[in-house]
Write a structure and sequence with these properties.
The complex is a heterodimer of chains A (112) and B (113).
Chain A: E1 5-7, E2 10-14, E3 19-24, E4 31-37, E5 44-49, E6 55-58, E7 61-65, E8 71-76, E9 85-92, E10 101-102, E11 106-111
Parallel strand pairs in A: 2-11
Antiparallel strand pairs in A: 1-3, 3-8, 4-5, 4-9, 6-7, 7-8, 9-10, 9-11
Chain B: E1 4-7, E2 10-13, E3 19-25, E4 32-38, E5 44-51, E6 57-58, E7 67-73, E8 76-81, E9 90-98, E10 101-104, E11 108-112
Parallel strand pairs in B: 2-11
Antiparallel strand pairs in B: 1-3, 3-8, 4-5, 4-9, 5-6, 7-8, 9-10, 9-11
Classes of the chains: A mainly beta (112), B mainly beta (113).
């Protein structure tokens, strides 16, 4: 069974601080996605990475895919209260099927 | 982006009854849709892959006779929770893929009393 471990599980920080969330697995992924989910809603896609070593930036968010395509990280600079939510990584091990297995999740709370 | 709609958004049912949840791709066709379940404060667990015109593929540990999936058209997949029990209470979410991006429904909160 594929397993995507995220760390930390919970994170509570002050507005303006930086943070990094990690997503690790023993499996190799053809692609990996990061989502943010608000309570009572479906997840919203933030980014998709497909190439080992790839780095993508989305405003204050920086995503990195490990060279071996087994791990990924999400770094948020100068966190804001609006960043609060559940962050999920999701990996697909078979190219083209879009069957994604979700990570264990990181619950982030940014305090004003 | 593409829109995936789930209905209902929430439902309360009595133990032993069956509940049907619909997942529709509103502006694109999806030959494959996915059903997930999410318990409070936990991540999404993939339950099954819904394939248009053929049988669904269930993940290990998911009872196919309890969670009936029908994908009769390119825009609609349904999940029926049969003989529901309180432990089936959860947030059920579907997704469909257009091109390389997965789009999620807003989810259905099922409470079995």
């Amino acid at each position: 069974t594929q397993l995507l471990e995220q760390s930390p599980q919970f994170l509570s920080i002050q507005e303006g601080e930086n943070l990094t969330v990690y997503c690790n697995s023993s499996s190799v992924f053809s692609s990996l996605q990061w989502y943010r989910q608000e309570p009572g809603e479906g997840p919203v896609l933030l980014v998709t990475v497909v190439t080992g070593g790839e780095v993508k930036k989305l405003k204050r968010l920086t995503f990195q895919f490990g060279d071996a395509r087994k791990d990924s990280s999400l770094h948020i600079t100068a966190a804001q209260p609006g960043d609060t939510g559940l962050y999920l990584c999701a990996g697909s091990t078979l190219s083209g099927t879009y069957k994604y297995i979700f990570g264990t999740g990181t619950r982030l709370k940014v305090l004003a | 982006g593409a829109v995936v709609s789930q209905h209902p958004s929430w439902v309360i049912c009595k133990s032993g009854t069956s509940v049907k949840i619909e997942c529709r791709s509103l502006d694109f066709q999806a030959t494959t849709m996915f059903w997930y379940r999410q318990f409070p404060k936990q991540s999404l667990m993939l339950m099954a892959t819904s394939n248009e015109g053929s049988k669904a593929t269930y993940e290990q540990g998911v009872e196919k006779d309890k969670f009936l999936i029908n994908h009769a058209s390119l825009t609609l997949s349904t999940l029926t929770v049969t003989s529901a029990h309180p432990e089936d209470s959860s947030f059920y979410i579907c997704s469909a893929t257009e091109h390389t991006e997965a789009f999620f429904g807003q989810g259905t909160r099922l409470t079995v009393v």
